[in-house]
Amino acid sequence: MVDGNAVIAAEPGLAADREQTLAVEGVSVRLGGREVLHDVRFTIQAGEFVGLIGSNGAGKTTLLRVILGLQKPAAGQVRIAGAARARQETAVGYVPQKIELDPDMPLRARDLVGLGIDGNRFGIPLPSRGRRGMVDETLDAVGAAAFADARVGTLSGGEQQRVMIAHALISKPRLLLMDEPLANLDIRSEQEIVSLLARISKERQVAVLISAHEINPLLPVMDRVVYMAAGRAASGTTGEVVRPDVLTRLYGHHVDVIHLHGRVLVVAGRDEEPAVGPRDDTHVLHTDQAVPDPDTAEDCP
Amino acid sequence: MSAVFQAVFAPGFFTSDPVRVALLAGGMAALVSGIVGTFAVMRGQSYAGHALADISVTGGSASYLAGISPLWGFAGVGVAAAAAMDLIGVQRRRGRDLATGIVRGAALGLAALFLYWGTTSTSTTGATVTILFGSIFTVSGPTAGAAALFGAVALGIVAVLYRPLLLSSASPELAFARGIPVRATGALCLVAVALAVSLSALTIGAILSTALLVGPAAAALRLTSRPGLAVLWAAVIGLAATWLGVLLAYDSYYWPPVHQGWPVSFFVVALVLVFYLLAQLAAARRAGRRPGQARPLAAGRDGAGA
Predict the structure, then answer these.
(1) Residues 143..182 of B with a Cβ closer than 8 Å to A: which?
(2) How buried is B195 (Cβ within 10 angstroms: 0-12 exposed, 13-18 middle, 19+ buried)?
């Protein structure tokens, strides 16, 4: 399957030898007659930290739903650790977006992390040394030991995000998926969470895929990027993907990439400028919002 | 010493059969309501619990007319209403509030009709008093047996679903991500709430049963940050309020203005309020003791595992 317009094959040759933790193979999704994902393909290896970047409606959440097995693709498939995706696989740890925790709920950070081990099981859990040790170890690994006994609903956004990571991590998944973990975080917690995730992916050899509006917080630590626009994806290293020609092809209209003190700005070009490499598809969904805008509201799948 | 004892426990308290019945049936209702109520409050279902109590009055008053124990009507209509509330979508708040509000109004209208018939046919206010304010001193043996069964089912539901309920109370999204059938879990919890309400309605009355469901749980939530301990506290507070209420009602026979005794339901509900205020006070004091602490409700670091 060759679709040079939207998909940039950027797998390094040596990666083929390593085990692919996640392989998204030509996934297309139609919802209500509209194609929300078109031939998305990329792979992630163990220990890799990958950002899934795109603005609202680009298809990030739909893609995560396909990976989780909650959405059946119209074409293509997802393989996790070489096996076809089955629902409720313990190999995947998932943290949904916009979780609101009630400050009145009597639930400590350590309780929520414990529910990451066996929250779906019946019966009342008996306290055990092994269980407590596992919870303590995971809380420690995400830097949440200091507020382990605080009500989770009273914690700050950054602290809650650490607890969420621990909750997802404690079942020792091979793939950690997080939907917009940086939303609503202040800049400092944003940086802390990003470097924490990068460290975890290396130390525990977990493949980490997180979705985000904004590419810059992830730039310093991201191994590779999956850049999405209007249901299409380009993947590779940031150097391979975040380029005017690649992003112009992805967006379907002219895009400039400006480098500024180690950060990048992706801006829409003027309309009269001819697009580089016009798209040959007839079902292109035109997006007039080329700049990922973190301030826009709801991210609809 | 024995004078104090006599002042606290009026003569005959320990030998009275109605008292024994009240301690047993009331204790059972308090235990179940406290435990199930903790989940209802954590899940934000206390309004649903209140509505279930109102709606079940219809069943209770119909049973009274039919000459069977109101417990059957309370439980039957309550569980049916719980199922209906799930069908019309407890998930969406506005739809839920509107639908429950309308059904609740209609149910209370029917209850008023049944109670009117009950009152006119017997020429006493027995129906109204029994249904609305309970019959804790006169629960019969077979009814107590049925109540024990309903209570066991309610406790069984929350014990089996303890972890899925906890996780979906904290965040339905997280629970869903873990593969928990969030909706079915919530519906079963609502059935447990309906059964708990039927027990409380039988003993302290339909209009006061929410106090026993919500009050001890609300107090427990102020006292601890641990889910298991919150359930335990709610059970203890509910039990204490009910047993103390029975004692005070018994003692009040010797109180002015008329020597006829005060209704036990009044004492139970008043004591629940007192316990809630004490819990608030304790939480506020704990917050005050550690002024530097940003999280007043954080438990100490000495805790054992969950």
Answers:
(1) 159-164, 166-167, 169-171, 173-180
(2) buried
pLDDT at A14: 44
Query: Please, which residues 243-272 of chain A have a Cβ atom closer than 8 Å to chain B?
Result: none
Q: Between A81 and B59, where is the model more confident?
A: B59
* Optimal mutation site among B161, B163, B301, interface A, most CBs of chain A within 10 A: B163
Task: State ipTM.
Answer: 0.83
Q: What is the dihedral of CA A204, B170, B188, A91, to 10 degrees?
A: -10
Kindly report, residue by residue over B153-202, the tens digit of the pLDDT: 999 999 999 999 999 999 988 998 888 998 899 889 999 999 999 999 99
* Closest-CA distance of chain B to residue A152, Å: 9
Chain A residue whose CA is closest to B229: A106
Strand partners, A42: A24
Instruction: Give contacts of A103 with chain B, Cβ < 8 Å.
Output: 297
Contact B173 A120 (CB under 8 A): no
**Domain-wise residue ranges, chain B:** 28-286
Give me the residue from A106, A127, A154 closest to B227, CB to CB: A106
Give the DSSP H/E element, type plus range, for residue B66.
helix B46-66
3-state SS class at A231: coil
On the question of pLDDT at B39 being above 80, the answer is: yes
- Just give the CATH number of B28-286: 1.10.3470.10
pLDDT score, position B290: 55
Burial pattern B143-174, b for ≥16 Cβ within 10 A else e, equals bbebbeebbeebbebbeebbbbbbbbbbbbbb
Give per-residue pLDDT as tens, A143-164.
999 999 999 999 999 999 999 9
**CA distances, B182 to each of A178, A298, B80, B127 (Å):** 20, 23, 20, 40
- Mean pLDDT of the A207-220 span: 91
Q: Which pLDDT belongs to residue B199? A: 92
Distance of CA B220 to CAs B160, B166, B199, B234, B268, Å?
21, 16, 20, 5, 17
CA distance A24 to chain B (A): 20
B286 touches chain A (CB under 8 A): no
Q: Is the CB of B298 less than 8 angstroms away from the CB of A118?
A: no
Percent of chain A with pLDDT over 90: 39
**Residue corresponding to tokens 């690994």:** A141
Residues 211-250, chain B, touching A (beta carbon < 8 A): 220-221, 224-230
Q: How many CB atoms lie within 10 A of CB B283?
A: 17
pLDDT confidence of residue A271: 59
Per residue in B200-254, pLDDT tens? 999 888 888 889 999 999 999 999 999 999 999 999 999 999 999 999 988 888 7
Which amino acid, B143?
Answer: T
User: In this complex, is the C-beta atom of A123 within 8 Å of any C-beta atom belonging to chain B?
Assistant: yes
The C-alpha atoms of residue B170 and residue B172 are separated, in whole angstroms, by 7
Looking at chain A from residue 87 to 116, which residues have their Cβ under 8 Å from any Cβ of chain B? Answer: 87-88, 94-96, 98-108, 110-112, 114-115
The predicted pLDDT at position A113 comes to 94
Average pLDDT over residues A119-148: 90
Would you tell me which residues 33-62 of chain B have a C-beta closer than 8 angstroms to some C-beta of chain A?
42, 44
